[in-house]
Amino acid sequence: MQNSRRQFIRLTSISGLGLGYGLSAKADSLENQEVYAEDEQSLYVGDKIAVTDTIHGKVRGFILNHVYTFLGIPYGADTGGRNRFMPPKSPPPWKNVYPALWWGDSAPQDLANRYKNPYSSFVDHWNYEGVSEDCLRVNVWTPEINGTSNRPVIVWLHGGGFTAGNAIEQDDYHGENLSRKGDVVFCSLNHRLNAFGFSDFSEMGAPGFEKSGNVGMLDIVLALNWVQQNISNFGGDPNNVCLMGQSGGATKITSLMAMPKAKNLFHKAVLLSGGRLTLGDNDLSSRIANTILHEGRIGKGQIGKLQEMSWDEYLSLSSSVITKIRHEKYQRGNHERVEWGPVVDGLVIPKHPFEPDAIQHVENIPTLICSTLNESAPGQFSAEFENMSLKDVQRQLEKRYGEETGAIVNAYAQSFPRRKPIEIWSMILSNRSGAIALANRKAKQNASVFLAWFAWQPPLFNNRLRAFHCSDICFWLYNTDRMLTHTGGGKRPRELSEKMVASLLSFVRNGSPLCSEMPEWKPYSPENGETMILDDKSILVHDPDRQARKIIENYKTF
């Protein structure tokens, strides 16, 4: 895994995927240079190149393709040992210049089968290397340092639920292209995950562990405080910070919306394929904690012994507990999610973010919500389902929707007559109920909500990939020629990316995605359901799946 990731960095980061961004100027006068030459130097690194201050000490990065790049800057201390399960601490200051030249370690997680599926490994091009509890690191891409500019700041929160992932898990997380094209500061970060970030021992009676169930979220708050205190040295405006996350990253943003400590640390939000009205179940989190102690033969007053375990030993113990509880629930026919995540603890998170209504202190935060047409896309790597009928679709869904299945399938087929049965199946599995519920709650507040539905389908695997979960990320971040395994590369995806990036940059700067490159993008309202369909030809429509989706939403209330 180490060699493959190092090769990835060399091939895509330093070569720029052959885009030809050689620099025509000396490294000390790059900010205003616009002329690129393919055969000239594109990487600059040295003792006095790309050096700036942070509150913990000086850092040195490098300049690549006209963008200052800083990788793996510590924003928090090592979370191992007695710091495990504890709120994060600031890192110890350093005297020498810190070499911010390489990615920080990923948070502890199970990587045993990460590359087992060759199809998934190929398409998503996972990037993992070092793993440790010393993982609180932030990466920064910026067009300028040590100046007076106040550029918008985008902070990217990675996917993988609250269980897995890192700041460069996929090639399309890379921030160089968007920073250069949009003249923005782009940040990404690693934080604690799974049992290390969300083991809830708050009800065990042991002093000091009251916040243990949410320390992974407190890591992100510490990172956002780091942005507030340092980003001006990187050319960024601490008063214009946009959080952007996909899947689990989007849910991290809605979790932050419920955290008083995160108030005023961000000013706009972009939620891609994720976000929730409510957080984890407290009874379940307590049961997981109790079972960990039971399986580890540790008393409630001896939680400190869990801090003495190696990280892989604790990960193994906690993972086995999750598997056991999940299996027991399934045996009883209960398919409730059993997973790691933040909980309402009354301290770090006083209440759910959008239940019954949106938290008041995010009243003025504009929000852009996007989902993909085929979040769940069965049959991507096999032709088995391509010629299925609507009756076949109904049979596939009967266990999930019972007597309502026929009505649901027929409603989607009538609403989308040009879609094949396999696509109808996918759209039902990927229905927008969650995104709509989130938009409805947020729309009650002052700041505007904008809704998008990504429908672009790549010409790969006989066109079976469709608009799958994660496929829109590289379009938003201007990485369609970097994430070739999601797009195929070339002019067609790049043209859509240009338009989506223009909308994103307008939103980041002005709180609205309105721009000349896209059709008029009106704010979402529950009455009209304004939705921008993102495709080769984008178009604003009014709640195109309302009738079909309503049957599913009504079914869920039975």
CATH top level of the largest domain is Alpha Beta
* Global geometry: globular
Query: CATH homologous superfamily of the largest domain - what is it?
Result: Alpha/Beta hydrolase fold, catalytic domain
Q: Which class of secondary structure composition applies to the elements?
A: alpha/beta
Output the CATH topology of the largest domain. Answer: Rossmann fold
Whole-number total of structural domains: 2
- Count the E strands: 15
Quaternary: single chain
CATH architecture of the largest domain: 3-Layer(aba) Sandwich
Task: Provide the helix percentage.
Answer: 25-40%
Measured between the Cα atoms of the first and last residue, the distance is 47 Å
**Strand order of the biggest β-sheet:** 1-4-5-7-9-8-10-11-12-13-14-15
- Which residues form runs of ≥5 with pLDDT under 50? 1-36
Summed over residues and divided by their number, the pLDDT gives a mean of: 91
State Rg. Answer: 23 Å
Please report the number of helical segments. 17
Q: What percentage of the residues does DSSP assign to strands (E)?
A: 5-15%
Major sheet attributes: 12 strands, mixed
